[in-house]
Design a protein that fits this description.
single chain; two-stranded antiparallel sheet; about 15% helix
């Protein structure tokens, strides 16, 4: 089955489940993370499976046995949590100008 890295979009072939310490062959980013799991809810920033033990670092590798590689069902976690640093082409790229505009809007007075 072909897999795609959520960080750099590199594609590679893998057979079977993704290992706990699986890394992207191109950028060496961990793949077995909450942000890459189909069960992750980016709005709540938590797992949809109630019996899953909480993970403190959703971006880091974890040992969750309920992990299912895929885009979270309610949206892309990467685009909601870390838009500039973790937004691969599969989720949509933004230009440098758009990134700067978004950054400046974070500090703009809402009444102006």
């Amino acid at each position: 089955m072909k897999r795609r890295c959520p960080k750099c979009s590199a594609a590679w072939e893998i057979k079977g489940p993704i290992g706990f310490r699986e890394e992207c062959p191109e950028c060496a980013a961990f793949v077995h993370t909450c942000l890459n799991c189909r069960n992750y809810d980016p709005v709540r920033r938590d797992c949809r499976i109630p019996t899953t033990e909480p993970v403190h670092d959703c971006e880091g590798a974890n040992f969750c046995e309920d992990y299912e590689f895929g885009t979270p069902a309610s949206g892309t976690a990467a685009s909601r949590i870390r838009p500039a640093a973790h937004s691969p082409p599969a989720y949509g790229k933004i230009s440098a100008e758009e990134a700067r505009r978004r950054f400046e809007n974070m500090f703009r007075d809402p009444e102006s």
